[in-house]
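Appendix C. Worked example: Glucosamine-6-phosphate deaminase
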Amino acid sequence: MPSDRIPALMNVIVTDSSEQAFSRAAWMIAHEVRSHASPVLGLATGRTMESIYELLVQQHETAALDFSGVTSFNLDEYVGLPATDPNSYRYYMQKHLFAHVNVPPAQIHVPNGVAPDLDAECAQYEAAIRASGGIGLQLLGIGETGHIGFNEPPSAFDSRTRVVHLDDVTRRQNSGMFGNDPSRVPERALTMGVGTILEARKLLLVAVGEGKASIINTALNGPISEDVSATAIRLHGDCTVILDEAAAALWKRTAQ
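Step 2, the predicted output written as structure tokens:
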């Protein structure tokens, strides 16, 4: 069993503000894009990511950040929501990033939540990641259940892209986009597996706000466990975690 200590190669950055956290994350992604002729990015959704994507759009518009060589793979999508649904993650990505930068449409990948055969869709998604040469940098958030992607507890650390049932906690957390009605949040989703995520060459997890402090402390200081899929990032050889002071508060107190 691997040690529960944070490995030396994990870089935890604590910034004074959420704005600084978003800026550091956007800089890392922009550096990845500029450093490779054909960068492959794993992308995430959520309020934290909106600010990061806004900064990337600004760099595209003002600093010639070129996305034409980028291939992207999103972590997850709700089952039953087409790309045209404003609550789908494909729609989210178009609104916040793809409509404003020059990623070729053929190089954009988001799981298809209305595929007639969801298991086949998951297998094809894995195949597409492999065909791209693998994800170079995977952007991650963290949910209240400790999930990365939609890898609800328990999720095997060798799990692959698959259909999952969403925890009631997650559905409540995500209900803001559904009129604050958790019953309207789809019960199932497609998600990259923990094993899929861990195969990315670099991981970048971003969390801000005091609401994330408890789960960040669990993810970074608690036992490495399939009951908290985010603890798996401590098994990765090149992982950066960017936090603001509020999100880092309990972790810093426990680590002292």
